[in-house]
């Protein structure tokens, strides 16, 4: 028996996992977020997007692993603002297809 498993996901799966996204503001509003990543947060917001994935730990972990496996920089953050409740968001340099359509890239 093994204790490791392989599942297949795509970036399209990640695009379905998040419900809200916007350009990063983690530097402007540092008290909103607790970081759960081992690496330091980016010192610039340029090119980074925040994707909210809900309060479920599994969704945040899987989303982080999808983006990391695809080669993107990603940081898992806990958004502490009650809106309506705190939840996970991912700070990343990945731009979903909806972002590409929105900015014409």
Query: Given the structure, what is the number of helices?
Result: 3
What is the averaged pLDDT score?
Answer: 89
Low-confidence stretches: none
Rg, nearest Å = 14 Å
Helix content: 25-40%
Q: Give the strand order, joined by hyphens, for the main sheet.
A: 1-3-5-4-2
**What fraction of residues sit in β-strands?**
15-25%
Overall body shape: globular
What this model shows, in words?
The protein is α+β, with helices and mostly antiparallel strands. The chain has a domain at 28-98. Helix content is 26%, strand content 24%. The chain has three helices and five strands. It has helices spanning 11-17, 57-69, 97-103; strands at 20-23, 33-35, 49-54, 74-79, 87-92. The chain has a five-stranded antiparallel β-sheet with strand order 1-3-5-4-2. The longest helix is centred in the middle third of the chain and has 13 residues, at 57-69.
Any chance you could write out the topology, listing elements then pairs?
Elements: H1 11-17, E1 20-23, E2 33-35, E3 49-54, H2 57-69, E4 74-79, E5 87-92, H3 97-103
Antiparallel strand pairs: 1-3, 2-4, 3-5, 4-5
Which short descriptors sum up this protein?
105 residues; alpha+beta; five-stranded antiparallel beta sheet; 3 helices; 5 strands; 24% strand; globular
């Amino acid at each position: 028996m093994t204790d490791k498993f392989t599942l297949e996901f795509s970036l399209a799966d990640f695009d379905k996992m998040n419900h809200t996204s916007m350009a990063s503001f983690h530097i402007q509003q540092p008290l909103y977020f607790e970081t759960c990543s081992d690496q330091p947060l980016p010192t610039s917001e340029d090119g980074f997007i925040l994707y909210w994935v809900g309060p479920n730990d599994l969704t945040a972990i899987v989303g982080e692993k999808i983006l990391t496996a695809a080669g993107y920089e990603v940081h898992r953050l806990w958004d502490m603002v009650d809106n309506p409740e705190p939840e996970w968001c991912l700070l990343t340099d990945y731009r979903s297809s909806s972002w590409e359509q929105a900015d014409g890239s």
